[in-house]
Write a structure and sequence with these properties.
Elements (H helix, E strand, L loop, with lengths): L7 E4 L15 E10 L2 E9 L4 E5 L6 E9 L9 E8 L5 E8 L13 E2 L10 E6 L9 E10 L6 E5 L5 H6 L4 H54 L2 H8 L3 H4 L6 H25 L1
Antiparallel strand pairs: 1-9, 2-3, 3-4, 5-8, 5-10, 6-7, 6-9, 10-11
């Protein structure tokens, strides 16, 4: 890391289960897999699945991943630098912890300083911050690497081991050319876009089907209401238009009275029909 305009260096690490490279992936992949709680194993893979080189530091089945920090500039009297840890805990609580302060060094002329502490252990959500004096902004360079603390379960003897197979130049020599990497990225992005389009079209089709079903139900209910409304007035008219029963029970010799009653009934039925027409 080298500071340009800012006076801070912030390092964060994302932990995930170890996975293999796919055919359409290339570049440098850092895999950190969990063995036990708070015990991790790291592996760097450069290249692709067909042409890859693995830089591994697996020294035991129970390693603990630590980080080493070494300044790459000489110690001066007026320049200082500090290391902080910001730890994220439950409910979003953040704890600021001081790891190292260069002002605490006893030997002011010491140049080969290496900071490796059990406190420099990043969990998900934690941050490592390095702060330098303003006079060191142009030359504030640090080497941050990772180490393993091997725990022997039988003797309970802790032994520090540094990764020996992570060769810095060879790591970048194993990376494919930029053009090949860009074409692979393009192919993967096109495939992801096709999948997204298909999912979007399926969602639109389901939504349109749902809307059409709702509209069909509404139209059917309206149609049933109109049919019921038109058929209801027919029954009273038919009952009222029929001739009264008592007219048929009159004696046959009383023809004048019978004709008068029939005329009155017809007139009443006609008035009822006109009244129903006005109401409708």
């Amino acid at each position: 890391f080298q500071l340009d305009k800012s006076a801070l260096i912030i390092l964060t690490v994302t932990y995930f289960k170890e996975q293999q490279l796919n055919n359409d992936q290339s570049g440098v992949v850092l895999n950190i897999s969990t063995v036990m709680p708070q015990f991790y194993m790291g592996t760097i893979v450069a290249g692709s699945q067909k042409r890859q080189k693995r830089f591994s530091c697996r020294i035991s089945n129970y390693p603990r991943l630590l980080y080493g920090i070494q300044p790459l500039f000489p110690k001066t009297d007026n320049a200082w630098w500090r290391i902080y840890m910001i730890r994220t805990r439950m409910f979003g609580q953040k704890l600021v912890e001081s790891i190292f302060n260069s002002l605490m060094l006893s030997d002011q002329n010491e140049t080969n300083i290496e900071v490796i502490s059990g406190d420099i252990f990043l969990r998900p959500g934690d941050y490592l911050i390095i702060e330098c004096a303003p006079s060191l902004e142009s030359s504030c360079k640090f080497l941050i690497y990772y180490k393993y603390k091997n725990i022997q379960l039988k003797d309970f003897i802790e032994i520090d081991h540094t990764c020996q197979n992570n060769d810095y130049p060879n790591l970048f020599e194993s990376i494919p050319s930029r053009t090949l990497f860009e074409t692979e990225q393009l192919q993967s992005s096109v495939s992801s876009m096709d999948t997204t389009k298909i999912s979007f079209l399926i969602g639109i089709l389901l939504f349109a089907t749902w809307i059409s079903i709702i509209f069909g139900c509404v139209i059917m209910r309206r149609a049933r209401g109109l049919v019921n409304y038109r058929t209801e007035p027919s029954s009273p008219i038919s009952t009222q238009s029929t001739k009264p029963n008592f007219v048929q029970r009159r004696p046959a010799n009383d023809q004048n009275e019978q004709q008068r009653l029939i005329a009155a009934g017809d007139r009443t039925a006609q008035l009822d029909i006109e009244h129903m027409g006005l109401m409708s």
